[in-house]
Amino acid sequence: xxxxxxxxxxxxAEDAAEDISSPVSGVSEAIGAGASLLxxxxxxxxxxxxxxxxxELPAYLMVQLSWFMxxxxxxxxxxxxxxxxxxxxxxxxxxGLANMALSAPSVIFLLIGGVVAERADxxxxxxxxxxxxxxPALFLAVAVARGELSYPAMIIxxxxxxxxxxxxxPARDSIVNExxxxxxxxxxxxxxxxxxxxxxxxxxxxxxxxxVVGGYADKRTQMPxxxxxxxxxxxxxxxxLAIQGIILALGAGFALWLGRGRQIVTGGKGIKSALGDIADxxxxxxxxGKLWAMTALMFGVGIFVIGAFLVVLPIVNxxxxxxxxxxxxxxxxTFWMGAFVSSVVLSIFKRIKRQGRLLLIAQLLASISIxxxxxxxxxxxxxxxVFIWGLAAGISIAMSRSIVQDAAPKEKLARVxxxxxxxxxAGAPFGAAIMGALVDLFGxxxxxxxxxxxxxxxxxxxxxxxxxxxxxxxxxLEHQERN
Length: 483
Fold this sequence. Notes:
Elements (H helix, E strand, L loop, with lengths): L1 H18 L7 H57 L8 H28 L2 H24 L5 H35 L6 H23 L6 E2 L8 E2 L4 H19 L14 H17 L2 H32 L4 H23 L7 H17 L7 H29 L5 H30 L6 H17 L8 H9 L1
Helix pairs in contact: 1-2, 2-5, 2-6, 2-7, 2-9, 2-10, 3-5, 3-8, 3-9, 3-13, 4-5, 4-7, 5-6, 5-13, 6-10, 6-12, 8-13, 9-13, 9-14, 10-12, 11-12, 11-14
């Protein structure tokens, strides 16, 4: 398509030079030269636009990498600082409440974040949010370095990062739609499903990197002989927190390469107008069976799965297997490695016919994996179960995002994404607090039946009472129509 554009511009220049004539000597030559100059300028401008469009997707993936690598570090450091024997050494309920503080702001601010993402310059918004997210990590690094770490400081950190994340999610996730759309205009074969899958792959890869680095917080790790046999760690927690802040700040730099993107202009301003926009977003979700079903599914995942993931697994790691931050690292790296592997496999398929069916089967597999944790097994078997859980999670995350991005009205995309994510975020604080209390009462293994049973019941409802099981992907339908 780009070659056709170049040929078209060159033909314009030739036509302009040949067809323009004047009775005044020399004027026709001057006009022809001017037309050629204009065509050359248009040609150069077209090349610049194509170059800018082509660099957008790599830049977006780097923004994704920076946020989720910092997130991976946080996944290790946050529970480690609260439950670790070297630091606060608190119980499951304290960890559950801290995770509730980390996710609760999204319930309050996520819908406003969707409205802001549609009205604001997405590029500038990402830059500001990355810089804001770097600040609390750096402050926490100073507190740990001075020996002033406290549980209230962790709660404040969680509330701050949670608030920034509420505005970050719709801003970042809605931009991928525009990036893919602009790239398709210059002849790229990237589909929306593939763009979302690439973003998901970047997320998983970055989280794995952050988790690996975070695992060196309290123990020296010896590399195998085939890697040189050198040792890494222990790295002080304050240094890892500083690294987290720096990585987040780098994301602001990568966002400079993004296009400005579309901004929705509404007739009103202020709180009343914002509430009206939110109401329109809810109406769009309620009126579409697929969007409503995906939001309900995310609410169930928040309650049943995230509580088990953020609270039960770290307690199992400490009380059942006796590990510290290195165990949290190995556990979460195994999970996200499984998610990365499944997302790589998905990236091969640009058009999947039954996205919803694949999603629900993956969720069922994840639920069965959780149920298997009721029995005490060797640590390597436990990690194998976690890997299978990760495989299923990678499929379900990529497919659910593709379904919502595809079904949402483009002029309401950020609001719909914020409502979809709200289903997940609204369930997560309750799930974290409930699982934390249940862990203290019954132990981390016996309660596995709660998240597994809840998710299986939700999946059965999705199969029989929503259109998700029988829906067909739009990319597949469009391909069938063209052929």
